[in-house]
Fold this protein.
Amino acid sequence: MDILVSSNLERLLYYLSGKNNQRVKELMEKLNNSGVYEITDEMAEKLKREFYGGCVFKEEAQKTIKDIYENYGYLLDTHTAVAYKTLENYKIDTEDDTVSVVLSTASPFKFAKSVYGSLFGEADDDEFSLMEELSEKTNVSIPENLRGLQYKKIKYFEICNVDEMQDFVASASDE
C-alpha cells in the first residue's frame, strides 16, 4: 500500500477539478509515471479556500494524547492526536469557533508503543506486551482483531518487489 497515493487524493482531485474524471486520470497517470504533477491555479485557489493544513511534531502529538486522556479519559491514537492538535491550531489561527468533529479511524493499540510512551514514558517492551499494559492501565479494551495477534499463524512469508506485485498476486490467486 502506498499511503502517499491514497484514494483520498483522487477523491480530492475529483472535487477540486469540478468532477472532471479525465483531468483526474491525467494527473494520476502523471504522478505514477513521473512522481509529480501540477494542479491548475483554479484548483489551487479552491484548495486554499476550503482546506487548512498544519504540522504537528512528535512532542506535540504526545502531549495531545496525554492531555486528552487526562482531561477526558479518551485514548487517542497518534494519527487522531495530530488531527486534534491541528484543529486546535486552526481554531486559534482563524478564530473560527464552529463546532467541529475529529473522526478517528485508527486504534491506539495499533500504535501501542507510541501511545504508551505518551502516557507513561518510554518502555522497551514489545508492542504486544505494551498493548496489554496500555489496556490494563487505561481500562480500554484491546480491539478483537488485535487481541491475541501475536499467537496467530503467519500464512504468507513471500516478499516481492513493487514491479513484481501484479504477477505475484495473479500467481497466488491461481493456487
Summary: Residues 78-94 form the longest helix (17 residues).
